[in-house]
Design a protein that fits this description.
326 residues, alpha+beta, Arc Repressor Mutant, subunit A, SH3 type barrels, four-stranded antiparallel β-sheet
């Protein structure tokens, strides 16, 4: 019985690794593979074992032509899904190059060897900015453990000074933090939770957290009815600022940009032959005003007055900056 179980597992592995719709196998192929692994089988036993795999829920497709052919149909991930996940791992600025390649190797295991060849042929690591160490990955693992255990963590938080050296905020202050949710935004990883020193929910960039430690203190739970989606919408690109209902006058060519930012449900109406109005809810922050500025005049804030004045003040400060001559 043990030999039969082992044989069935080897057949499953062979079908997953060596077959797909374009590359089916016949019983003789499977018998030869089993023989190479020191397992004796016949075409009849292979057919019986495949029937057991099908009964167990494995999608083995049997193509009954002149010679019965077998291949794996549905897999854990479809080929386009594997490609998308590989591209995400390759492009991630959160993962080191080593970690990205290791993850891609695991994802390739979900494809047949023929599909892996096509996927590997399409791989290209360009000049993506990658971290030099795995501290952020280790931090994320600790935060995930804290969420699972319902415990607080303590850590320091840093930024970069003009000399590119790490500058720890508030003289290496230890933040006591109850993590709730991870948030992915603009290719950056954030952790949302309750900060004791801030006295409110706040987000920290995971890769800027230093020396995190898991404590035995119970975490402060998220308030009842806390809506993560609403929170993310209210904090534009993870920067705090007053939430305002803003009216934007945009050139028609910017419709795709506005939809990319606010979704297809964003309220818009025609302004004139060349423009439309978009009414959005946005956190009035430097990030938001920077996005407006990047449109090079194609987007204009028309309301409320508070947002118009804040944006104009930012423009005035930018114009007043004159670099020193050397």
């Amino acid at each position: 019985m043990a030999d039969k179980k082992s044989r069935i597992l080897y057949i499953k592995r062979f079908l997953e690794e060596q077959t797909d719709e374009a590359h089916p196998a016949v019983a003789a192929d499977i018998v030869a593979y089993l023989a190479s692994e020191g397992i004796t089988a016949s075409g009849r036993t292979v057919a019986q074992d495949i029937d057991l795999l099908i009964e167990a829920g494995v999608d083995v497709v049997c193509n009954k032509s002149r010679t019965i052919q077998y291949f794996i149909g549905d897999r854990h991930f479809e080929l386009p899904e594997v490609k998308l996940l590989i591209d995400a791992a390759q492009a991630s600025k959160f993962l080191t190059a080593k970690r990205s390649r290791a993850l891609i190797g695991k994802l390739l295991a979900f494809a047949s060897r023929y599909q892996r060849t096509d996927l590997e042929r399409g791989l290209y690591f360009d000049g993506h900015v990658k971290p030099k160490n795995e501290n952020a990955y280790i931090t994320a693992d600790l935060l995930l453990a804290a969420i699972g255990a319902g415990k607080r963590v303590r850590f320091m938080y840093y930024e970069y000074g003009p000399d590119k050296k790490k500058t720890y905020k508030h003289k290496r202050k230890l933040y006591e933090f109850s993590p709730w949710h991870f948030i992915w935004d603009c290719d950056k990883y954030y952790i949302l939770g309750y900060s004791e020193s801030h006295g409110k929910p706040i987000t920290f960039r995971v890769d800027r957290i230093a020396a995190p430690k898991l404590t035995e203190l119970d975490a402060v739970p998220a308030p009842k009815g806390f809506d993560l989606a609403d929170y993310v919408k209210s904090v534009f690109s993870m920067y705090d600022g007053p939430l305002l209902d803003v009216t934007l006058k945009c050139e028609n060519a910017l419709m795709k940009t506005v939809i990319d930012r606010y979704g297809e449900d964003v309220h818009t109406e025609i302004a004139d032959a060349g423009h439309f109005y978009a009414k959005v809810s946005a956190s009035a922050s430097k990030t938001f005003y920077g996005w407006i500025f990047a449109s090079d005049g194609a987007i204009e804030i028309t309301a409320p007055t508070e947002a118009v004045e804040a944006y104009n003040a930012m423009l005035a400060r930018a114009k007043s900056f004159v670099p020193e001559k050397h």
